[in-house]
Write a structure and sequence with these properties.
GO biological process, one term: DNA biosynthetic process
Largest sheet: 3 strands, antiparallel
Distance between the termini: 41 Å
Order of helices and strands: HEEHEEEH
Organism: Cuerna arida
Strand content: 15-25%
InterPro entries: DNA/RNA_pol_sf, Retrovirus_Pol_polyprotein, Rev_trsase/Diguanyl_cyclase, RT_dom
Structural class: alpha+beta
Protein name: Reverse transcriptase domain-containing protein
């Protein structure tokens, strides 16, 4: 979905539309225009991905495949690293904070 530049309420509207179109898909996390699929197995992951792609096709939603990551053991999502062991802060973000000077 694309919107004209400068419209203040677009992020809120975009979030609502993403939940309208994809919100009922289990294993899918939605944050504005970021989607993250998680599954216990590759088959479960691929099944969820198939649902997302079919729904996107149905509603003519396009994805930026330059940002697309497929079937990763570990992903950075919203500044957090997720993997089988759980989640942790992104080490790169932590380093930036450590290097901040005191006010």
């Amino acid at each position: 979905l694309r919107a004209p530049f400068g419209l203040a309420n677009i992020p809120e509207l975009f979030q609502k539309l993403m939940f309208k179109y994809f919100g009922d898909i289990k294993g899918l996390a939605i944050y504005f225009d970021d989607l993250c699929i998680s599954g216990e197995t590759k088959e479960e992951h691929d099944s969820i991905l198939q649902q997302v792609l079919e729904r996107a096709r149905k509603y003519n939603i396009k994805f930026n495949f330059d940002k697309f990551q497929y079937c990763r053991e570990e992903v950075k999502y919203l500044g957090i690293v997720f993997n089988k062991q759980g989640m942790k802060a992104d080490p790169q973000k932590v380093e930036v904070i450590k290097k901040l000077k005191n006010p």
